[in-house]
């Protein structure tokens, strides 16, 4: 992981902090990578453009018939991943998305592996306030 700095924020004195006020850690995941075949060659679409993981995952999420815990949240994730290529998620959301990708029957292992690699390698970590 690169560019990761960790700090603890607490409402009490820094030196006597029992860290009772846990902060939620959000990690940024970058899906702006190109899909490659087993030889490492970039896979091209029929129009000659490279196949981008963020576009594949965004489409996978918003066009899926899979049952998800929160359809609105998943739809928002799909839109953001498709358009921006990056998203911030906490660990429970990452696990939810990994399960979704793993169980999805519409994509092959090459695509799933590329997505799961992105979800295993966050590019940034930030603190996002108190957990509830």
What features would you describe in this structure?
About 35% of the residues lie in helices and about 15% in strands. The chain is an alpha+beta fold and about 130 residues long. Strands 2-1-3 form a 3-stranded antiparallel beta sheet. The protein has 4 helices and 3 strands; from the N terminus they run βααβααβ. It has one domain.
Compute the number of strand runs: 3
The gross shape turns out to be globular
What fraction of the residues are assigned to beta strands by DSSP?
5-15%
For the residues shown, what is the average pLDDT? Answer: 85
Structural class: alpha+beta
Terminal CA distance reads: 27 Å
Number of helices: 4
Sheet with most strands: strand arrangement? 2-1-3
Could you estimate the helical fraction of the residues in percent? 25-40%
Ranges where pLDDT stays below 50 over 5 or more residues in a row are 1-17
Q: Main β-sheet, in a few words? A: 3 strands, antiparallel
Q: What is the number of domains?
A: 1
Order of helices and strands: EHHEHHE
Q: Return Rg in Å.
A: 17 Å
């Amino acid at each position: 992981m690169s560019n990761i700095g960790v700090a603890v924020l607490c409402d009490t004195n820094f030196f006597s902090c029992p860290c009772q006020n846990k902060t939620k850690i959000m990690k940024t995941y970058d899906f702006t990578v190109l899909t490659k075949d087993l030889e490492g060659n970039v896979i091209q679409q029929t129009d000659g453009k490279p196949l981008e993981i963020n576009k594949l995952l965004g489409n996978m999420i918003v066009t899926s018939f899979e049952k998800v815990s929160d359809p609105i949240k998943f739809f928002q994730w799909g839109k953001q991943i498709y358009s921006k290529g990056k998203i911030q998620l906490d660990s429970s959301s990452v696990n939810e998305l990994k399960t979704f990708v793993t169980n999805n029957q519409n994509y092959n292992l090459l695509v799933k592996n590329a997505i799961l690699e992105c979800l295993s390698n966050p590019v940034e970590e930030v603190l996002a306030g108190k957990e509830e």
